[in-house]
Design goal:
Keywords: Signal. Residues 1-19 form the signal peptide. It is a single chain. The protein is 94% helix and 0% strand. It is an all-alpha fold and 88 residues long. The mean pLDDT is 78.
Length: 88
């Protein structure tokens, strides 16, 4: 009877250990899936941020070019002595 009790304890213990290992594998698999999903979202966000930065740089350069053009035109008008008010 004692041998049978010990055998039952060993069987239950082995079953419990197997179940815990199996549960750990499932949990690890689930966490790995979530981690991969987060990495994908992070890559997507990084790509969107990169596109936003490129658009911002483009708008900023366009504004600088507009300012340079405006300054150049003002200098040209001043240099030529042209004044729209004098022509009226």
């Amino acid at each position: 009877m004692i041998v049978l009790s010990w055998l039952c304890v060993i069987v239950f213990e082995n079953a419990f250990v197997y179940r815990r290992k199996n549960d750990k594998r499932k949990i690890i698999t689930h966490i790995d899936g979530q981690y991969d999903n987060l990495l994908g979202l992070a890559r997507e966000r990084q790509n969107k941020l990169n596109e936003t930065v490129k658009a911002y740089v483009l708008v900023r350069e366009a504004a600088e070019l507009h300012t340079i053009r405006r300054s150049s035109l003002s200098l040209f008008i001043f240099w030529r002595g042209f004044s729209p008010l004098l022509r009226i």
